[in-house]
Amino acid sequence: MEILRHVVLLVHLVGFAILFGAWVVEAAARRFQATRLMDLGLLIAFVAGVVLCAPFGRDYDFNWAKIGIKLGILVVIGALAGISRSRAKKNTPLPTWTFWLIGALILANAALAVIWR
Ligand code: HEM
C-alpha cells in the first residue's frame, strides 16, 4: 500500500511539473497566457491530490488545514487560468499581473506542501 501511495505521489508531482513547466514556458516566451497544458497539469495534480487524502491502509495524521488551503488555492488557479484562456480567445486578455499571480500561487502550493508538515 505504501508503494501505491508513493506512485500516486509521483503522479501528483508529475501534474505539478506539467503545470509549473507550462507556466515557465509561457513566461520565457513572454506570452503571459494560461494554456491547455496548464489545465492538464492542474487536473492531474488535483485528482492525484484527492487520492492522496485516502489513508492507504494506515492511520495517517493528515494536516487537513494545509490540504484545505491547497485545495482552495488550486480552485483559484483553475479559475484564473480558465478566465485567462477565455478572455484571450475574445481578444480582451487579462492584465499580465494575473499571469504572475498564477505562478506565485502554484509555487505557494508547492511551498505549503513541503514546508508545512
Ligand atoms: C497546484 C496545486 C498543488 C501543488 C503544486 C502541490 C504540490 C505538492 C507537492 C510538491 C507535494 C510533495 C510534498 C512532499 O512529499 O514533501 C504534495 C503532496 C501532497 N499533496 Fe499536493 N499539491 C497541489 C494540490 C493538492 C491538492 C488539491 C490536494 C488535495 C486535495 C493535495 C494533496 C496532497 C497530499 C495529501 C500530499 C501528500 C502528503 C503531504 O505532504 O501533505 N495537493 N503536493
TrEMBL record:
Record carries keyword Transmembrane: yes
Keywords associated with the record: Membrane, Transmembrane, Transmembrane helix
Transmembrane domains' residue ranges: 6-25, 37-57, 63-84, 96-116
Name of this protein: Fe-S protein
Originating species: Microbacterium stercoris
Organism lineage string: Bacteria, Bacillati, Actinomycetota, Actinomycetes, Micrococcales
